[in-house]
Amino acid sequence: MPPLVLLGIRALRHVLITKSSLADTFRPHARNLSLGLTLASLALALGYVLMQFDTFAISTVPLSQNQLMQTVGELNIPDYRYWVFRYGSLFFLGSLGFMSVSVRLWKNSGVVLAVFIFLFMLTTFFQARLETLLGASGCNILFFASLGGMSLLLLFTAWRQRESSRHELVYIAMVVWFLLWVSLSRDAKRYDFFIGLPLAFFTTELIHRAALFVTEKIRNVQFLGANFRKRLPLRVIKVGIALVIVASLMYWKPAREHAKRATFAATEMRRATPGNAPVAKAFAWMKVELPDPAVVAAKWGFGSQLNVLGGVKTVIDQDHYIQHWIHLFNTHVRDATDARAALEFLKTHGATHLMLTQSQPPEVLLQGDLSEAFVPAYPQENFTEAGVKVWEIRYPPNIQSNPKYLATEPGE
Questions:
Q1: Secondary structure, 3-state, the chain
Q2: Which terminal Cβ of the chain has fewer Cβ within 10 Å, N or C?
Q3: Residue 134 vs residues 76, 137, 139: alpha-carbon distances, Å
Q4: CB 172 within 8 A of CB 113
Q5: pLDDT grade, residue 160 (50/70/90)?
């Protein structure tokens, strides 16, 4: 969306200063016109978000506080320990690099911008600790004030400068990237995947400046002779200093060993699922053994895997993500207290099989007159000890579908 909005602003500006009847009036004030259009676009975007704020509510309960949404780990708010776990010390050094770039490029305006960046960093990476001092509302006010201050100051700096170098535009692009994705990551872990590039960029900038500073100090040290200083391989020294800093960040424990954490993230956190887990073998069995119209009821997180790897249909999954159905499944099947209600829910949704990955299903399903409806199907050996179990469902004649289990919202 931002690139499209930027394209629209530039197109409208071009029309106003070249094609419109007021072109002669607008042309001398082209920069002011650009600033005005940008501020107007930001105001419209903010207004739209405020107008649509109620969209993020479900039955008067905010989406983030919805009971089901709270079970999605990627939507949790990251704390300081999470940032250290994911990025070592790079999240901190990247922010310092952002501050140093601001001061170097924009001088006095950059100093003010660095203050806003510091507040932004404090209210994002140290959010939980700051909330203990200021409270959640105070921390949020400080965060939005710093974000708004940075945005307005960057716009003002861009409006005041007549020319920008090509390198400066690269820095500006990284600044926007950093602000956008770090702001989103502040309230949901899932977005932190996108902040790696600007963190690496600004950390590299900081390392580069540190190597230049140390090299310059060595060049000007007084106790070395003039001839010796001339023969110093300063370029080699600069590269060596940078390598030492990078190696420290990557492998030194006090610097949080980013290489170790990055390797873990790549091999464990982002590995393919289900991999070679027992559930993968169950999917393979389904694809071969179950007939085409089979419908397997299972936890919603297995939905897409059952569809693709098992070749079967499902009741709840990530595709339709009907939250009330997931709630009904959890209540009447996963945590069943009434076998009849469980069978009614499953029959209403046309389930032919049930897959559970806990050690045993609810005892109510295996006891009483209705226990014969659940016939063990997989695995055929050591079924009792298996971690993944599949039952064929043979509905008794007195079990009927109930439309209430098709309701997509409470109270329907």
A1: CHHHHHHHHHHHHHHHHHCCCCHHHHHHHHHHHHHHHHHHHHHHHHHHHHHCHHHHEECCEEHHHCCCHHHCHHHCCCCHHHHHHHHCCHHHHHHHHHHHHHHHHHHHHHHHHHHHHHHHHHHHHCHHHHHHHHHHHHHHHHHHHHHHHHHHHHHHHHHHCCCCCHHHHHHHHHHHHHHHHHHHHCCCHHHHHHCHHHHHHHHHHHHHHHHHHHHHHHHCCCCCCHHHHHHCCHHHHHHHHHHHHHHHHHHCHHHCCHHHHHHHHHHHHCCCCCCCCHHHHHHHHHHHHCCCCCEEECCHHHHHHHHHHHCCEECCCCCCCCHHHHHHHHHHHHCCCCHHHHHHHHHHCCCCEEEECCCCCCHHHHCCCCHHHEEEEECCCCCCCCCCEEEEECCCCCCCCCHHHHCCCCCC
A2: N
A3: 21, 8, 6
A4: no
A5: confident
Count CA atoms within 13 Å of residue 319 on its CB side.
11
Residues 60, 261: Cα–Cα separation, whole Å: 40
3-state secondary structure 229-240: HHHCCHHHHHHH
Of residues 309 and 67, more confidently modeled: 309
Q: What are the tens digits of pLDDT across the range 357-369? A: 875 677 778 777 7
Query: pLDDT-based confidence at 63, cuts 50/70/90?
Result: low
Q: Report pLDDT for 52.
A: 76
Residue 60's pLDDT band (cuts 50, 70, 90): very low
Q: Does the structure show a pLDDT above 90 at 48?
A: no
Asked whether residue 105 carries a pLDDT value surpassing 60, the answer given is yes
Structure tokens at 25: 């009036």
Q: Would you state the structure tokens that stand for residue 152, as one six-digit string? A: 């307005």
Burial of 326 by CB count in 10 Å (0-12 exposed, 13-18 middle, 19+ buried)?
Answer: buried
Whether 178 contacts 194, CB under 8 Å: no
Question: Would you say residue 65 has pLDDT above 50?
Answer: yes
Phi, psi for 25 (deg, rounded to 5): -75, -40
Q: How far apart are CA 127 and CA 264, in angstroms?
A: 25
Phi, psi (5° rounding) for residue 186? -60, -30
Sort residue 164 into left (φ over 0), alpha (ψ -120 to 50) or beta: beta
